[in-house]
Amino acid sequence: LGWSPRKATKASKKEPEDWEDICTKAFFRMAYCIDRYKIPAELVFNMDQTNVVYSQGSDMTYAPINSKQVHVIGKEEKRAFTVCVTSSAAGKLLPFQAIYTGTTDRSTPSDKSESYAECISAGHRFIPSRTKTYWTNQHCMQDFIISIIVVEIALIIATKNLNPQTQRALLLLDVFSVHRSQEFLTWMRQKYPNIIIIFVPGNCT
């Protein structure tokens, strides 16, 4: 048949032609804010989101030799949940936020699940998206800020004896539409003006 074992592929996103320039500018924006507002490494946060597939299929199949694009049934399995992972520039891994498709807490892990109590005591969040998808939205981002970022900021301010009225923090996000939305950014400016948001340039993550 002229077939050979092949790995599933898909077209990758292309980085911008001027990626070095725009990434350098983003770096200097961060450096300026950190220096200008004397932000310690413990208050510089980087958050990213990834989907966790419940039943991961194989990415291998048989296809004609030298195939450029290979499709595998089940490769694009969408039954999943989203995990928001955050770390600080000081190297601390913050609690996770897990987002599940559904409108009520019944969509999230049962409180009788193994290690559930341990996860909750560690600060991890299990929340329903309140929509028909598992992607983050305004409700989820506000929960993330209030339950994870603000809690960590308060802890660091108390530990390092900083001024809670004037101390700034910095949050690095990707350019996902919800992160860049006027609704979210306006909410942040109104509720948490001391948290500076900087975006990783598009297609540069």
TrEMBL record:
Name of the protein described by the UniProt record: DDE-1 domain-containing protein
Species, as recorded: Sistotremastrum suecicum HHB10207 ss-3
